[in-house]
What does this fold into?
Amino acid sequence: PDHGRILCTELTDEGHRIVQQAHEIIAEVEAIMTKTMTDQDKFYMEKCLIECFNNLNSK
It folds into this structure.
């Protein structure tokens, strides 16, 4: 880092393990909540969520 306020950090092995578990849980939840949706439905839902996110972050 070139700035005194910037600190480099790294995840521990335990931190990496927890992140991996979180990714697996998220994938399971996503599969359950979209199991009756078509690919087109999933695409449209993602598009709408991105638009909502962008609207919340616009000024």
